[in-house]
Amino acid sequence: MTTPDLSALLDRDRANAELFDLLRIPSVSADPTRTADMAATAEFLRAKLTGLGFTARIDPTAGHPVVYAERLNAPGQPTVLIYGHYDVQPEAPLEEWVTPPFEPTIRDGRIYARGSTDDKGQAYAHVKGVELLLTQGELPVNVKFLLEGEEEIGSPNLEPYLRDHAGALKADVIVISDGSRFAPDVPTITYGVRGLSYVEIHVQGANRDLHSGSYGGAAPNPINALAEIITRLKDDQGRVTIPGFYDGIDDLTDTERQMWADLPHDDAAFAASIGVPALPGEAGYTTLERLWGRPTLDVNGIWGGYQGEGSKTVIAAKAGAKVSMRLVPGQDPERITQLITEYVPTLAPAGTTAAVHPHHGGRPFKFDLNSPYNLAANRALKRVFGREAVFARTGGSIPIVAAFNDLLHAPVLFVDLGLNEDAPHSPNESFAVSDYHNGILTSAYLLQELGAQTSTE
């Protein structure tokens, strides 16, 4: 069966104009003064989807609302749930933006605006992909949209929403586009995400800050103690020393290691891109293997003692650090949190005590490379890019995947449309115009391929 070239049918100017209207709304979920803007964004999306013939509504939550829409006119065909988020990061620091963050501007083929890639541009590409398909008749599959407004603040109300609406959200596959491809012109399917255990370490010394002249040399120093504890959390081979930390993890397969070795990655270029002379890490693994397939432990913040201008000669009574551990399949975040909670106190030098305070976490996930959904996505991407997709994992963590798995019982398909160079969360966030247009085509072709797959089984 031949299908029309959808690229020739895409009205690119109109697609840009609509995205610009969406990007102009400052939907910053973390800012309580933007509540009306959050509601306006939800209404924008509801109205658009209603205009496309979807049954669409705005569902309130304890925080910002969820936009839900469905078009179920393909009996016997799969149901595809498309997830995205319409909230964006705060725009600060404003002075670092070249152009205003909520006035979309095209420079050198890129759309500069807060939310352009994360996630308004990627999510709206799916809306426009559906619209493009509808110009050719009915959709080949049943489609549902779930667009939330709290992803940038940790999705505190999404899990209760999923639990309350699990029946309505039932789907065969959940499609997410909220990340980065491996490289420009390299279509990418993400088949795994790392998990997370995030904790704080608190070290206590004396019952008050002490004069460093009167007590130095005799009193314990919690900052020194914290530095020693942190140093002892890894060995000289870059391995985490927490007992049991590596127990039960899924080793990288030979197929994965070869697949990643074949990717167009260059360590020197990667190091140069972040302005460092070397890429330290766990011995025996390549950079990509360490980024995607191995667990980590990193200090994300540290505090203790005097931080103001000038000097203050004290031995601080307290010190602390924030620590994140990225986890791989086979590691349970609750277990890892318990292990570090038990281990750190044993590292406290004489005269100090150390305790771990857990924050939050998320489970790691790895999906079947050869699932029919991955294969359909590969065919769709090949139609857009003219080449096979590469399969990658991501070093980041997406805790909501666990909720989708536990509550909706549907596999997740990551088809990311952006790039790391888009600078999500940073000033001058952008989205390549070509990536936006290719994302629209990818979405349309993906739905076609999912429909065709069922009819040929």
TrEMBL record:
Source species, domain of life: Bacteria
Keywords: Hydrolase, Metal-binding, Protease
SUPFAM superfamilies: Zn-dependent exopeptidases
Tagged with keyword Transcription: no
InterPro entries registered for this protein in UniProt: Cyt/Met_Dipeptidase, Peptidase_M20, Peptidase_M20_dimer
Keyword Glycoprotein found: no
Domain named Peptidase M20 dimerisation: residues: 192-350
PANTHER family hit by this protein: BETA-ALA-HIS DIPEPTIDASE, SUCCINYL-DIAMINOPIMELATE DESUCCINYLASE
Protein name per UniProt: Peptidase M20 dimerisation domain-containing protein
Organism whose genome encodes this protein: Deinococcus radiotolerans
